[in-house]
Records
---
Amino acid sequence: MNNFIKKAEALKPILQKRVVTASGRYGAIQKNQREIYDLGNHFVGHAVISVYADSGVVDAPAFLEFIFAETMEDFDFNDLPDNSNISAAWIQKEYVHLDKIPATIKLPRRYACRYISIRALASSASYVLGIRNVKFIEETSAFGDIIPCGNTEQEREIDRISIRTLRNCMQSVFEDGPKRDRRLWLGDLRLQALTNYATFKNFELVKRCLYLFAGTADKDGRINGYVFHTPKVYAPTVRMFDYSLLFIPTLWEYYKASNDIETLQELAPLAVRQLELAQVNFDKNHRIFESPNLGWCFIDWQESLDKTSCGQAVYIYAAKYACKICRALGRDFSWIEREIELKSKAGLTAFYDESKNLFVGKNGQISYALNVWFCLAGVFGPKKNQTILKALQNEKKAIFPTTPYMYHYYVDALYRSGAATEAKRTILTYWGGMAKCGTDTFFEVYNPSNPQENPYGSMALISRCHAWSCTPAYFFRTESDTKSDESCLEY
Ligand code: RAM
């Protein structure tokens, strides 16, 4: 175990546990009858269930089915999918035999759910089974209650759901989703950390995650896209062009929020290293190009999206944060400034179409992703960016974001260009659309015009409490600071 991992492990939080009792119909349950119990909100933890013989003599085992659902709609999608492109084992469904009755059983897995359905699949004619208790031991490393923020009931509702989403993803690390993949991903971490600074302020958890990434960097110093933290800390080599670069703003923002200069000092070389490593992905004209070395440039869940071009802007964006880090530590960053200049010029030449006032990707593709990232990269100033984002809204062919992750960056770009009203409107329509579904937490993917859109080939594997969707709580608390913000430009 290297020193960075040791540091991270020393910061492992003790989870706060609390018992919640589900409401529902207790008592006798007939064969094949399904009972749904309601925890009253979304929780993450372990289920403890007590059963007994309501009448008769127990002469055979009971055989029960349990389904754990994050939303009521999830009950429509709980069959084991055979066509998914990720493991179907994530589904939250158990079949349990009980040989001794009465019994109190703790189910084997950790679940993310609000609703628990129980069905007696087989039982003897000599007795009727009864459900005495459905309890849930919830776990989180988000401590304290946060007062919802917002000017209207709708805003406060969106805020409550955002906070619940973040809270339930805060476990031993910032998980992407407590149902699936329960992994620490860099892109998710950044957005969780930002929202955490404005709410729970668990700085140690962010620090732990930064050290987990640092401790699992490859031999060249490349930060992986994600880290497994259990049963042991491990990161398979997964090159993610954008996620590795996002280590830079994530470190900077941690320092700004916590004032922890030692961590900044210790991890700054690794942050700057991400820029150095990314340089080979640009041709002699300083334009990004596709190659195996680039790895996965995630940007958003959209197959047809020209993500590589977005990478040009992500690089410039990250480089500006690297300058901030170097300046704070009194280190030379003239080469990074030069990089910014060269990559910005090349980005404009390659992608900016003056006649449309838009950035245009491969094969004439116009997307929110490309334009948003170039606005965030600050290649132009806020006023001009505002006109670009306006032109984007009027562009019928533009590819919309699919995930709350990409929507976050769109809203961020709107705020930073001074379009606060439009930014707020976007939050109210997009996240408000999810809230209207009666959810307690926000989803991994939400496409209002195709509610069943998902990247895994099966709705059974979708995560309804997904970290990267928690940022309305960040925006509501910081919007006055981000109005027409040039912070990214001032490096
Ligand atoms: C998904 C994860 C995570 C995201 C990556 C790119 O599988 O759930 O949220 O960061 O993909």
---
Amino acid sequence: MSSLQSLHPLSDWPRRSEEPLLISGPCSVESEEQYIQTANALAKTSKVHLLRGGIWKPRTRPNAFEGVGEIGLEWMVNARTESGLPVMTEVANAEHVEMCLKHGLDALWIGARTTVNPFSVQEIADALRGVDIPVFIKNPVNPDLQLWMGALERIQQAGIQRIAAIHRGFSHFGDSIYRNKPMWEIPIALRTAYPNITLICDPSHICGRRDLLQGVAQKAMDLGFDGWMIESHLTPDQALSDAAQQITPEALVAMLSSIQIRQAQSDDITFVHELQALRSRMDKVDEEIIHLLGKRMRIAEELGRFKKEESVTIFQIDRWKEILESRTMLAEQVGLSKEFILKYLEQLHKESIRTQTRVMNQRD
Ligand code: PEP
Ligand code: MN
């Protein structure tokens, strides 16, 4: 069993009470004036708990703004004094960690391009040994849950107690409305493996554009995330990095006010009873479905034997097409999405082929 099982939630630092944790600030620290003004504006909202700002920027292509470097750490610390908010930045190597510790930053995050590389994560973990500072770990750019877990483990094994995971989506080839596809099943799998982990959503880097932020932030709330990291800039269109996804502090407040906050549980007795009744109805349906699937697989076994006797192939393209067509039509009639039924049929067909293959290759 991984030691991450024993990982505690971030406690309530730096939150007040049970409200979702909100990390905000510009993508990049651009100047002392810009950063302090943004910090003050965000502090004034009373919604932000922790200020972010990138000073070493990992850019996909060269010749773009790559951050102001170490001088930015001084500006961040000054912004903390002015605004009263703790400050955090992204570290990608041991040198970055040492500079952040020297300047007294309050928290660190590891970016997606660093989480992919166990050498870099281990180097950061070694630099953090014996230090007590919260570390937020973004998912790797590729959809690899093990790699994300590995990074969390490396940091935990360095003795860091306050650890959180940040979901920022996954890179992909081809068209998508998202800059990085959310693939919600991955953070859900992380939460399933480690129920206590503090899980934050970063709608800015998932969306890459402002108009999608609210929907993604709401979805994270609906799925029980503990908070958000959302980029905010005083003049987003003039931002030196990630201009299209940043929003003003005022727009951030407006967005938050239209997000429905959800609790993990309710103690309203009527609600609890009705929830139980609905769940037991669902349990029965699931039992019926599983029995029916068993019945279907036994028919597949018979089919396998039957085809074997005649030396007929297992895969029959016309039959598969007919199944796809008739089941999709029926699914539509009962209100199931095409996307869902196609995924389901694919799995079912795979299992049916596997079953028939086993029967066919059995020695008599
Ligand atoms: C960032 O937070 O500005 C950043 C570079 O994010 P990511 O590592 O998610 O790309
Ligand atoms: Mn950014």
---
Amino acid sequence: MTEIRKVAVLGTGVLGSQIAFQSAYTGFEVVAYDINDESLQKARLRLAALVETYRKEVTGAAGLQADTMGRIILTSDLAAAVADADLVIEAVPEVLAIKQALYEKLARLAPSDTILATNSSTLLPSDLKDFTGRPDRFLALHFANNIWKFNTAEVMGTPETDPAVIDTILKFASDIGMVPIPIRREKAGYVLNSLLVPLLNAAAELAEGGYANPHDVDKVWRIATGAPMGPFQIYDMIGLNTPYNILSHSDEHAGSLAAWLKENYIDKGKLGIASGEGFYSYKPAD
Ligand code: NAD
């Protein structure tokens, strides 16, 4: 099994910054790459915000000090970022052409034994494997947003991925504090989104069709199943733009759900927790 010591994270947006920070927090040396100085400046702000979040929300992190940040190098030099990485985790935008172009560069720049992993939410690793130059050392490693508390890591190879590489990444996921979940055959949406997307769509259908209002849909789900959150609370946590984008690209009926979300919520600036209001209000009481 390959020993992972040095990790390169490509893309320092919402998920990339979290993956870089969590890996450094758990003791790994991390190089985080993004395309230009402006993106790296945003990354610095995201990482600084994560220091505060961990201090508040992660048991044992109250005294979190500079050593975590000291283990993260930020760079816009891709060749330097991956030169001696044991593992590259790609978290760049969910656009096939961007990812393919990046893997074509990695095929040349990353040492041939470096393992490459994509955090893609909707693409299959088979969509990308032929661009990596090493299909046997390529797989998906899928995190959930807010990885310090929602710590699943779904690990999914293609039929060409070496089983030893899958084992290496299951162990790495565990080493960085995740609960590793092997996905045994390629499946768009992994386990998480295969379950969550239909639940969120069904909830939207109930509210859009006038059967029950969002708060009552949530109440039924919470009380009758014991779940801590209802589907509309989950919408607010994710942010309404992402489900809207998924619905807009789904079948015809989903289009009317997308329009309902847009007209009643998104166009009114109700985007979820991040905007202070979605299906619920998060504004501090006056
Ligand atoms: P994001 O838009 O927040 O961040 C993407 C980052 O990639 C940006 O910093 C951007 O500057 C950078 N980037 C753009 N082109 C690049 C390139 N060629 N090379 C390197 N960096 C580049 O996106 P995100 O939400 O962090 O999503 C990234 C990936 O993670 C996607 O594949 C997405 O499906 C997946 N994902 C996202 C979530 C989520 O909740 N946001 C959850 C799980 C998985």
---
Amino acid sequence: MKKARVTVVGAGFVGATAAQRLVEKEIADVVLIDVVEGLPQGRALDMMESAFLEGFSSKILGTNRYEDTADSDVIVITAGLARRPGMSRDDLLFKNAEIVGGIVTECAKYSPEAVLVMVTNPLDVMTWLAWKKSGFPPERVIGMAGELDAARYAYFLAEATGASPAEVKAIVLGGHGDRMIPVPQHATVRGRPITELLDAAKIEAINQRARDGGTEIVKLLKTGSAFYAPSSSTVRMVRAILQNTGEVIPACVYLKGPYGLNEVYCGVPVKLGRGGAEQVVELPITEEQRNALRASAEDVRLNFLKLRV
Ligand code: TXD
């Protein structure tokens, strides 16, 4: 069987770590591209030199030329600036819009059938912008954020209950940022709802820590943002798409109706497969959560409108 081909744009922390995970797990051959000369080539060569040690046969090519990305099945875009302490994700808006706009046009030209997975912040707005710039159908332009937020939420719940993270199921809704909405009534630990295991105050404290999960890491690192869990979340989405697993993963997708949201990109659980975002899953949520989701989506819309695309 022909190996899948994934382009990762941006050979920085998230991009290079995602590339490493993709080849080590034999999910795809990877093209790693960056604007900085030598950076993707150096990282790719270093990773290839670990192939013998790690025992993988997938290949990785480092390049600065978009021609080399042709016919990719999935394109992951991580290029752009990352947050520094004191910066919100929205502070990155105009700078990253400029970077992402140019990249998407190039990628779409060489891989017109690809599924685009956006990672660059502010995530929801960049995903919307990528859809506009690519000319792709919306189901083939998806953003990674909910999976990461849910993984953080699951980790904090595991920590609070003494369970292993693998025994926790958690889901979040909404845009990537302070308005993200944890949905504790659909979170379980070893199959039991967390509302039976933790009191309301503890759950609210964990909800808040999950909302602030990215900021907590930025404060600790001081010179960059999280990349281990973000690259893992990205790779899980890429695998679901390439291997057509039909897994339901929270992701930023274009909504036309579900959850009462219309013509806006926002985070919801979605079935992923070879066609990209194949079906939005509508969970029962409270009125308060529905209002919070609407507010989060309107925030995304306002920021997207600022770009005047
Ligand atoms: O949940 C999420 N979606 C996120 C998003 C989780 C973590 C990080 N998130 C965002 O991803 C973060 O706020 C940034 O916007 C991106 C990338 O974060 P990373 O930590 O990988 O940033 P780096 O290490 O600075 O890497 C960015 C790379 C760097 O190598 C630049 O040279 C490159 O992007 N870059 C470009 N590549 C190609 N083309 C252009 N124009 C370009 N400009 C910068």
